[in-house]
Amino acid sequence: MEVKWLEDFLALAKTLNFSKAAEERHVTQSAFSRRIRQLESWVGASLIDRATYPSRLTEAGARFVLVAEQTLQALYQARRNLQVEDGTDARTATLTALHTLSFTFFPDWLNRVNARIGPIVSHLRPDSGSMEENLNSLIDGDSDFLLTYQHVEVPMLLDMEFEHHTLGRENIVPVSAPGPDGSPLHRIEPNFAHVSYQKTSFSGS
Question: Which of 13, 72, 23 is nearest to 48 (CA)?
Answer without folding.
Answer: 13
